[in-house]
Fold each of these.
Amino acid sequence: MSIKVTGIAASDGFAKAKVYQLVEPDLSVKRVDIQDSASEINRLDQAIDQSIHELHKIREIAAESLGEEEAQVFDAHVMVLSDPELVQQVKDKIESESVNAEFAFEEVTEMFVQMFEAMEDNAYMRERAADIRDVRKRVLAALLGVTLPNPAGIDEEVIVVAHDLTPSDTAQLNKKYVKAFVTNIGGRTSHSAIMARSLEIPAIVGTGDITEKAPQGTLLLVDGVKGEVIINPSAEEEAAHEKAAADFAELKKVWQKLRDEKSVTADGVEVEIAANIGTPRDMEGVLHYGADGVGLYRTEFLYMDSNELPSEDKQFVAYKEVLEQAGDQPVVVRTMDIGGDKKLPYLKLSSELNPFLGYRAIRISLDQDEIFRTQLRALIRASIYGNLHIMFPMIATIEEFKQAKAIFEEEKEKLINESVEISNDIKIGIMVEIPSSAVIADQFAKEVDFFSIGTNDLIQYTMAADRMNERVSYLYQPYSPAILRLIKHVIDSAHKEGIWTGMCGEMAGDPIAVPLLIGLGLDEFSIGASDVLKNRSLIRKLDSKEMASLANKALYECQTAEEVKALVEKIVHQ
């Protein structure tokens, strides 16, 4: 008898294979009174060293298979195990209470986990709690002499089923054998979902209880488009699944034919569908999927993949490589966006109660302008190799923008005086991700060359709701009339002054949001490279005038996000 389970479609596609249950060994520990504290401390040191070595290897695998951006999480894990305060507290407990290393390590790390998780309004600290939980398992396994699951060792086609997939687990998935994964918990913005889309394998998360219903070796069908799993399917269900998979494969072939086509609506309005990248290596996907340039180059990964601030020459080489590969197409480079959930071990930043509303991004750049000047010099030097656009993140006031632009102009003038060849057509814009900048977009539009709306932050700041906090995540509403009105104001303000507006983040590739954004007049959509052709196909079916009418109804006739969604589904996705 087959069983159907539904969840959240985190990465589209179809898969059919037997279940590989990613089950952890028993890591429970007991308190044991010991006589030789020095021996236990030595055991702890060895376990930590072994764990750090394993994490470095996993990071290498992740960087190779997923890219530098996704691999960064393992730097955080190494930082946890290198934290002298945490390690010393474990050693002190071993000595003062004469207890075994396993017990002391679990007790101390649990204290840190509970302390961080108690900070309900601090997403960064809650993520650190998750990091501690992940590395604790690795150290305890080393101390207990047991082996953690090794997804990298899978050598036959399977569908991985787990309660959740840690970054360590996901980084080791080989898409040659892992055809999909399904988890009990998670959402579209979780680490595992993002990594699945990078690997381009189907994924369904948030099923609730898939681990209980799908035991090892069970045949499974995964529909990553609808978010459905069928356990022990009937012959009829297998046949239907195979047809749906074949239809989807044909659809992808149709999409691929659009690789060299323009991104244009049914009535001839041309837009740009650009790609988000984190490293020069990501340009391979940008070119393969025929993106209209780079809409967001996250330069912070240059800083995070280093033990020190990257030099001007190192940055210059990276920017030059991306610009050369993009050719005449625009490359929008975001200046360093460090802070919030992105920390640098070598850049000492004081702890903050709410780092997402604190000292980050342009605020650091303006305060420590020697770092900012180095980056700007590298960018200006690279500008002759392509179509460079520079974007400042986290701009809240006109004064901040003017200060940042003044520094840019100073460094540009210095390079000219040094007889360095540079482009005379570098565009300067801002990310609109703070409500204050959205509200006075009409004023900003007189100063900047372009806008790029950062919806992930704009939505949660506007709704005062942390999207990673499950208790208030219902307020993370991209279709809210309030959000749509802010977006309309930004776009209208830009067009009035003859400049363009783009958007980066989840909303720019959301099939419900895209018709609305076309109706609102958005000029550029910047999304994951693998989603470019799917969105190009959708946009080519939309009439901009009809979408303008749709957007107007959503803005002024709908009261809730659900009403907006229902309206789009009725008119566009029926």
Note: The chain has a mean pLDDT of 89.
Amino acid sequence: MRESMKFDVVIVGAGPAGLSAACRLMQQAQAAKQELTVCVVEKGSEVGAHILSGAILEPRALNELFPDWKERGAPLHIPVKEDQLYLLTNESKSIKLSNHFIPKTMHNTFNSEDSNYIVSLGNVCRWLAEQAEGLGVEIFPGFAASEILFHNDGSVKGIATGEMGVSENGERKSSYMAGIELHAQYTLFSEGCRGHLGKELYAKFNLDENTNEQHYALGLKELWDIPAEKHQEGLVIHGSGWPLHGFGLPKSDNTGGGFFLYHTENYQVAVGLIVDLNYENPYLSPYDEFQRLKHHPVLKEYLEGGKRVSYGARTIAKGGFNALPKMTFPGGIIIGCEAGTLNFAKIKGSHTAMKSGMLAAEEVFSALEFARASGIKPEKELFNFKKTFKASWLYDELYRSRNFGPSMHKFGAILGGSFNFIDQNIFQGKLPFTLRDNTPDHAQLKLASKFHPIHYSKPDGKLSFDKLSSVFLSNTNHGEDQPCHLQLKDTEIPINSNLPKYGEPALRYCPAGVYEVVVDNDSARFQINGQNCLHCKACDIKDPAQNITWVTPEGTGGPNYPNM
């Protein structure tokens, strides 16, 4: 029998949403001079180990949560000093766009007192964790929430952490440790994009029943040390076009996305590519597109002569306002990227995730206080949260950007970008209609017979690199001899269906070399190298048969990003 612990609130995931919720809960408790027990569980080896983002942080939510964040030493040191936007027309040419023609949502520089910041989101989360612990929050890193617990009436009771020390064949090893049950009045789920417990909640409570289809992108990022003479602290570069092809006429290829290059502190740059996962060509490899992107003169100018020091990948929920689910259910709320609060029009989700966590914290505390004052049990489902959310600046911001993603999907980067300029700069996001995009990303993949294989150049070891050396830089590790956390609903589908129809796209959409087709004596088998997994969730999203389910491995498993 598992041991159990009771809290007022349990929070799953120590990202910006979960930690902001934890801090806001304890701030309210201290202001009201009430005792409150709050616990945060985090599957990474430490807070920040699994956090990956560009990242440019808009400090709006942080200003509300900790108005004195500068005095507290928050790791926001580099304000954005200059924005540049490029359209790459081919492998060597580009067009630099004037800021006058860029949707205002993409602007990051305002004035010396009101700019966005280039940050390591992992370090921001580490700092938020320090603030939370200082307020009395208990944080348990290295413990993966593997199971949702329910009361007899179907409401959420809490979560259970995963077992440790179970062999690949399911036997208990000498190191076996049972999971622990964490019970709470309310449980907040902030696992990030495509959380595996979140998927269960969506299905059980029909949270997405009345919304548009969620859409995703795969973000790949590297951190580089570059020569001092090439470094321009505070410079932000965004772009689209080559090597992806969604920048021409409508339906030219339907491979959308864009790149970023941020000059941060200590003579470092963060460089990355975001690839929309609604692409059609099964031969496309987002990882290899990223590697060849770095050879373009716009990026090569800064990277050449530098040294790559870190690598990672993570999916992004980019459906925005139109795909927002019902966020409450009996016993809890989903928040942050778990609910898809990223504002793709800004290419930012940290401030929106933080605000969603703060709103949830305020609703939860209000319910607990009312129950305490009236002597009754707290209400099971916080129905008032919908009203609270709708009255917030978060709702307004996401609503104004509701057409940004669908227009890019329907019209491509040039025509879609022109539409968004008109929508955002002239009509302030209030055009009297809403564009829709309801085809799931995995259903956009077309048969391999409709395309020619893409031949990617061999990495040169200077600007471009192979997958395994990249995974090494992510410090990814999983304990040996444990059950595979990448589960196949049908073990026959990869070879008997996906391979002949699509050339088995898992070989290419995975940015870590997890999946292989091994041929032995004229027979093929599907091999899963779970040790390499970056926990990006691309396989859970893009597999055309929806045959792969990502579940959490043992706690501490996965990447260990030091400064991403």
Note: The mean pLDDT is 93.
Amino acid sequence: MSKTVEDIIGKGTWIDKIANTIVQREKKLARSTDLIRVESGLGASGIPHIGSMGDAVRAYGISLALQNFGFRSELVAFSDDLDGLRKVPYGMPEWLNDYICKPVSSIPDPFGDCHGSYGDHMSSLLLEGLDASNIKYVFKSGTKTYKDGILAKQTHTILSKSKLIGDKISELTGQQKYTQFLPYFPICEQCNRLYVANSIEYIPEERVVTYTCSGNTIGKKPIKGCGHEGQAKIDLGNGKLAWKVEFAARWQAFDIRFEAFGKDIMDSVKINDWISEEILSYHHPLHAKYEMFLDKGGKKISKSAGNVLTPQMWLQYGTAQSLLLLLFKRISGTRHVGIDDIPQLMDEYDMYEDIYFGNVKEPNDSKRIKLNGIYEYINHLEPPKTYPALHIPYRILIQQAGLFRNQSIETNIINQILERLKKYGLVKNEDYANKLLQEKINLAVSWAKDLSDSELKGDSDLGDSGDPLKLSVQQKTLIEKIIVEFETLQQKVKGFQAEESNSDSLNNNNDELAQEIQSIIFHNAKSNNLQPKEVFRLFYQILINSERGPRLGNYIADLGLPNVIMTLRQKLSY
């Protein structure tokens, strides 16, 4: 049974549903809702990627929804910068092998002197992405949190009941490690490494852990210890809790009410939930499980594997709004994501905006409310009051920028592209100063200069706009006939260009070429009993993945008949 508009919660999105569940749960638990904190963990041991940012952005969305419901809320972004370096990530300098198992906050910055440490640099990369997307957060450094003793109370309680915890971890996961050692990693005072120093005993009266630096196995690779035996005070930040217990400590210390997690750490979350409830007497936060982002080859996007798609990479070619759309559209389901998804998401954001301002009608009320809700969250619940920009398909901008990719003087490119858009009937003189349009053109210029045409694809598993375009037999027959006539026309153009050398004459003939192209498409539509507007729409879908577009004859003439013929043949081969 479908929901009525009256049944829709908040803005009608998955974000609102989770936020509402949090509120109802907190009321049932009779906890204060004066401030509802949500958390996202930031890994600091490798280059942060889109998935890392997705965790923080989605938690931020929940916080926004809670604020929309009338509650104070904030996102805690916790950087695990006291974590030890387990292996050298792909592409990083070999000298980092000398720092294996050392806390990333104590390792020199491998990118120079721009940050105080390796951990600072990695954390800042993700924070840069959040800042560029106007995401509000409260930053917490793991190193500082431990040094300030913020987790000392929780650490003491957990270590005092370490046998019970070790047995539970063994029961839930089969892992025997914590039946032998405490779930705490001291930093060996002799070799300054984590993980190799194994905690043997906790002395609660002194609040110290005794340890032996006897080595460990990390990722199936044995790492030798230095043999030192010593003690570490838990109040001074000379060590950290194991992941299997640390989440619970953070949840209580920071009073966290929501944290999402990826399915790769389900066991850790399950154990931490138990520890939170049974050991720390704190109701664990509500969770939402999300699937991982995969690369186009189906492999998990990994900091160490070298297939990282970072927020910085995305923002070189796409707007922050397109990135937030990727992350806010949904939380469930595995998605294959790559740079080639940017054009679709740029155009899809424009579609959301058109629906929001009523320029495009969405007859399904619940879907319209959901799309409008996502649009508002992308704009931080402060959407523009008036229709903000011209919507020109991003693929057009990329294709136009590609015509100037080898031009050395860049200052003129924007105006040259605007001149072409004016010729196609897409802009007017007063639109030249539109800053949002100029920003998109700049991004398209970056795309055209850095990326190949093969990365400009029309099909993606990220969209909600239906299945990828599939041609009918009639459409394929039509396109084959048009290709033949285009090829004949191209031969005429080549012959004409061989005879002509005057550039003005060539420009005049380009207008004639556009008319001939338009005529070929029109007459082939008629001879195949199709409406010309249907065929023009088909060409827009193939060339720019849009229902509408520029004056087609001029556009194809500027793109070049050989390029268009190649694109059409590629579509026929699908």
Note: Residues 473-572 form a domain with the Arc Repressor Mutant, subunit A fold (CATH 1.10.10.350).
Amino acid sequence: MSQHQHDHSHGHDHAHDHDHTHQHAHAHSCCGSHAEPAMPQARALAGANERAVFFIQKMDCPTEERLIRERLVNMEGVGALEFNLIQRELTVRHQLPSIAPLVATLTALDMLPAVKSDSLDASAGSDQVADYSIPARRWLMLGAAGVAALAAEVLAWTSGDESSIAVIGLALLAIGLGGLGTLKKGWIALRNFSLNMNFLMSLAVIGAALIGQWPEAAVVIVLFTLAEMIEALSLDRARNAIAGLMAMAPETANVQQADGSWQNVAAKSIHVGARVRVAPGERLAADGVVVTGTTSINQAPITGESIAVVKAPGDPVFAGTINEHGAIELEVTAAQADSTLSRIVASVQQAQGQRAPTQRFVDRFAQYYIPAVVALALAVAVLPPLLTATPFFPWIYKALVLLVIACPCALVISTPVTIVSGLAAAARNGILIKGGVYLEQGRKLRALALDKTGTLTQGRPAVTDIVTLDPGAERQALMQLAVSLAARSDHPVSRAIAAADAGDTSARSDVDAFEALPGRGVKGRIDGQSWHLGNHRLVHELGHCSPALEAQLQALEQLGKSTTILCRDARPELIIAVADTVRPASREAVAELRRLGVHVVMLSGDNQHTASAIGAETGIDDVRGDQLPADKEQAVQQLAAEHGAVGMVGDGINDAPALARAQIGFAMGAAGTDTALETADVALMDDDLRKIGDFLRLSRKTHAVLVQNIAIALGIKAVFMALALAGMSSLWMAVFADMGASLIVVFNGLRLVRGVPRPAPA
């Protein structure tokens, strides 16, 4: 018998040659958990062994991130900074004896830091709860500020005096209730030589007051504060997309105690080896293996599968999935913090650190954008009056409008919201993307190399043909005899034959004088007769391979099938063909990839005949058999040269070199497998190859939304800058435009949370 050896260890060793776009980006960013050396001398500290994580209550915008970075960048002992704006987290890797200097610096910046974890103090922050909500007191104060600003505007309009004591008093009340926070942040930015949004807005408000535009100064500060609060609420949508993943696991579970009784306990306290009972309709609290009971499990939270999967004793199950029918008991195999669901959530959060190309462009653009606009505003305020001898007031007002319009928040905040929404949508569909860079680069794939075994096929042999050689023989009876012999062997082909028996195992015959024939098959005596079950070679050795039998065997083998022959007293009676069967969705997946303009190639270690047969069945024209790991790597390199960006899909260690060489490596069937979750660029949690098409469509839509957001943000600013220079825009109109642009791009990005529907098969 032939045996296809395949290392079915999922995932791959990602020792990449980072000589292509596979490099991890570490650009200056606005949102994400990317690690970046904080200063030139910090390169020596990049491996700093202490780590502190802070929850930054007031880090709502890239403005705050940039300010924090600029303050910590030169601090002695700080190695790397990791920002996650969506989660309002800052991770500092350092070599400090205490985190007190970090806390003091963040407090001085009025960021309200809370310690989430500290490697110097394992218990630090264990009880800290992230509070993203806006206190009711702030809303009440803003409401009162709005009333005061409106009253100042009405009084100024009715009296015709914008600088009366009453108008100034109402305006100051509005600024005090609604804008002190912004003015304080602006002062902190000025002290730290940071030209950020709060500085620009503070400058605009103070400038408006100095030229006597008190009502407008009050309205501007109230509208800006309102815009900030609404923007913070909109970010909660992206934040909740990730938090919702973790919420899929229940907080308690019914666990067996030492005395045999059952008790509901906190899920986070469940230890490995514990026995958990799960009733119908309940969610599983932990990863485990079914011990008793049979049921169907809805695994959509982990794999994205829409159809429930039958689970019996010995089958693995995952935290967060739903027990639909029967009651089961399971033995826990991973603590809650190490469950597949927890690792998925952690991966999605960490994935924000892999900066997408568009994000890096926006971040670099913003670095030069603000200074350029400040310089332009200064030129508008000073040069025209000096050159044309016109009054300063109109030009100063135009310059202030330009400063308000210049706020880059809409431009910068749109990219992380869009990327996080895409990552969360993919995770909900059972696609784990390990970074924004891969989410956006997926649209560039022009070729995709597929491993055969375990990727296009099931990865395990199954009986495909049963042919009786004696027309008068009873096929079922002969098959029963073959199963009786095969059941005594642990060879993969023997196991496939034994599994093909749909009858009662008690009907199997007793086998006497059983003997394994290495490389050929087995033999034994059943009811006093001698029987052989073996491969083509064994029939030759027995001297009964007639030309007719040879033709039948060759016809099956040319289709990529392994043939096994049952012989009675050395005379052939039955042919059983075994092959690795194609996954049901493989042909549909290949067709969809072709529709998306991707050239599909099969790379297989099997012989060319077997590979070609599978290629014909799945619709792949470019089939390459007899591929060693080094050959697969070379093939991927060749495809990249011919087509451009190339991806590789595999499920075994033997695919690692090719997966590493590809721009994006896809791991199949990663659910519950540590290696694949940790090393794959994109991990498909189940074995549905159609999800690669889903990933490509999501990648293309993500890029389209990013481009839309950049165009919207810059377009609105360009229009209002032109209006400001023409004297047709006021300060409050500029704030409305900035607020509107921010909300438009945020909600446009959040559209991705719904994912991209899969088109119906053609």
Note: The two ends are 40 Å apart (CA to CA).
